[in-house]
Amino acid sequence: MKYKWLGAFHLYNILFISSDFTPFSELHQELKKDFLSVYEYSHNAFEEYKMILQDIDFVIMRAEQSFADTVLTMKMIKTFAKAPLYLLTDHLSEDEVTHYMEQGAEGNIELPYNAKMVAARIKAVLRFLHSVERPHTNIQRLGRIQLHLDNRDISVDGRIIPLTEVEFKIVKILIEHRDVAVSKDRIIQTVWDNNDSATDNALGIHITRLRKKLRCSDGRELIETVWGLGYRINLKHCES
């Protein structure tokens, strides 16, 4: 799979919240064309999706509960996510939409909508927000993975995983060459700076340790061996 980047080394994560995702189906497909990661959760699953909110870049929630319940959910989301929150609404008055925006919603999408236009709007907002991010925010993102360059740790599905210096360097080069196998020689030369004491066996030990640390929520490993070539990070393992 080839990834299309909308900003420098930045793949965005979108969250849909609804009891029925049929109204989101076309938009979901439009966003996937640009390889954005899309997550879907029901309104009553806050404790489940709370764990990934810190990694979410854009939220669209269907306003199908009461006004008070919708506002409460919005505020709970805002506690954990620093992301625009748009509401998907149906037959609301201008005053009702205004009240929601006064309570924290950044925008409104009225049903029925044009999926291509809404997808373009979402991507435009994300490009703008990414362009004005603080310059000292030193994070590389790849779908559900965030590599924190200042702290030398990594998060997968919201789980913070500490890495040793060598492990960090290995993960960094694999992420920088996303979806492409990186040869053992290339990794050794980069990580150990051409140190003659570095060997395939030493690399293999670190890869084994990393595989135990870097797993999807269902336990599958992120780092795979490409026989005859080297190693790569495969995000398909976390797409289910």
Any key phrases for this structure?
single chain, 240 residues, alpha/beta, Rossmann fold, Arc Repressor Mutant, subunit A, 2 domains, 36% helix, 20% strand, elongated, disordered N terminus
What is the helix/strand order?
Answer: EHEHEHEHEHEEEEHHHEE
Give the full name of the CATH homologous superfamily of the largest domain.
Response regulator
Number of strands: 11
Uncertain spans, ≥5 residues at pLDDT below 50? 1-10
What oligomeric state do these chains adopt? single chain
Morphology: elongated
Task: Please summarize what this structure is.
The protein is of the alpha/beta class. It has helices at residues 25-33, 46-49, 67-80, 94-102, 115-131, 165-176, 184-191, 200-213; strands at 13-17, 37-41, 58-62, 85-89, 107-110, 139-142, 145-148, 153-156, 159-162, 223-226, 230-233. It has eight helices and eleven strands.
Structure description:
With 240 residues, the chain is α/β, with parallel strands linked by helices. It has two domains: 13-131, Response regulator (Rossmann fold, 3-Layer(aba) Sandwich), CATH 3.40.50; 139-238, Arc Repressor Mutant, subunit A, CATH 1.10.10.10. The protein has eight helices and eleven strands. It has helices at residues 25-33, 46-49, 67-80, 94-102, 115-131, 165-176, 184-191, 200-213, and strands at residues 13-17, 37-41, 58-62, 85-89, 107-110, 139-142, 145-148, 153-156, 159-162, 223-226, 230-233. The protein has a five-stranded parallel β-sheet, with helices on both faces. α1 crosses α5. The protein is elongated and about 70 Å long. The two termini are 15 Å apart. Mean pLDDT is 83; it is low at 1-10.
